[in-house]
Amino acid sequence: MYNGPLPYIFEDRTGQLYASDFDDMYDRLFYRVTRDPQRPSMMVYDMGRRASRHRDSLPFSRRPIAILEFKPDQSLGSICYASNGNVAVPMNRYLRRTSMFGGSLSRKFMGSDGREYRWSHRSIQGQEWTCTTGTENFVVAHFDLKPADVPAYDVSGNTLTIFEQFIHLSVEMLASLTIMRHIAQHNL
């Protein structure tokens, strides 16, 4: 029997990079990532309730909690969070490569709590993306895709897991993961 805090397990409802809802399976937090139709940017919203309960029924009038602005050629632009007064930071400065000679699919960022976090692609078996911290590479979050040969019934099978003690960084985890997935998709 497990006695520790339950991790936040967000189902990535569509599995698509540019339009998906991330709903915690225990109904604690709900986010939406969507593309801005007027410019090459993505927005992260705190939705307040599960996507399946509002997808087609609510008028959409929320303010984004994070804005990921890409350049017209899909290269990296800037990121800003509502929590820091919408101050834009260049993505290359926000998400820095972990080594000069390493690939672009391993990058680090400074969290709002002052700690450094690292996203890496397929560094742990079964995890598409893994976020670690500290010299001991403590896993704080991971993104998993449903294997093609595994059936999924009424769920996508794609999940973002954030361990409870790091949930205060959930918006930063989701935004930085979205940038990492964009980097991978566009070979940046």
Automatic annotation (TrEMBL):
Residues 26-162 form the DUF6593 domain. The lineage of its organism: Eukaryota, Fungi, Dikarya, Basidiomycota, Agaricomycotina. This is DUF6593 domain-containing protein.
